[in-house]
Design a protein that fits this description.
193 residues; alpha/beta; 3-stranded mixed β-sheet; 8 strands; 27% helix; globular
């Protein structure tokens, strides 16, 4: 985990935003954000194509700590937050790509990733029936649901200071704050047993 103390702390701002979303939206109240690492990642390309954000589960299906793959047993590397608690998920945002979308797209993206956190909060993803377990049978329906959830959150009148930074593009934030900083969590490794 690497952290800087200068400029605009993007991961702290995303944590405050996520905490409010989890508090206001009952469908997300199973999430314990003290066990979710929020990571700032550099997008390799400046283009609008590619990931804006991702959620990395740190357990296997149904929260299993170990899994056999190709005849060998593995576990996911254990990570711990500054508070000493074991982290079960890494929520990553890819800049500048994420920041260069609209406010509505950003809010939907945050909720899209939070929704992936399984209702058992066991380190596994929320699993939908069928082959496309992450998003269900229709990515379009999943995205529309996240758009509605973002509108629902906004209708609950959250404080504007929690999301005003999302109204700016990446270069605008840099111009205002000098630089964008935050915590970066490297991808966890699979550890052979």
């Amino acid at each position: 985990m690497q952290r800087s103390n200068r400029g605009f702390d993007f991961t702290a701002a995303m944590r405050s935003l996520s905490e409010d979303m989890v508090t206001r939206l009952s469908v997300l109240r199973h999430i314990d954000l003290s066990r979710v690492a929020i990571s700032l990642c550099q997008a390799r390309q400046r283009s609008s194509s590619g990931f804006y954000a991702s959620l990395t589960p740190l357990r296997f299906e149904a929260g299993a700590g170990e899994q056999t793959m190709r005849g060998r047993r593995y576990r996911v590397e254990r990570l711990h937050a500054e508070n000493g608690r074991e982290v079960l998920y890494i929520l990553s945002f890819y800049l500048p790509r994420f920041q260069d979308t609209t406010l509505e797209e950003k809010l939907s993206t945050v909720l899209h990733e939070l929704w992936h956190i399984g209702p058992n909060f066991d380190g596994d993803l929320r699993r939908h029936a069928g082959r496309c377990f992450a998003h269900g049978s229709s990515q379009r329906e999943y995205d529309a649901k996240m758009d509605r959830l973002a509108q629902r959150w906004l209708s609950l009148d959250p404080p504007g200071h929690l999301y005003e930074f999302l109204e700016h593009r990446y270069e605008e934030l840099v111009a205002e704050h000098g630089e964008i900083v935050g915590t970066h969590w490297p991808a966890p490794k699979l550890v052979p047993l």
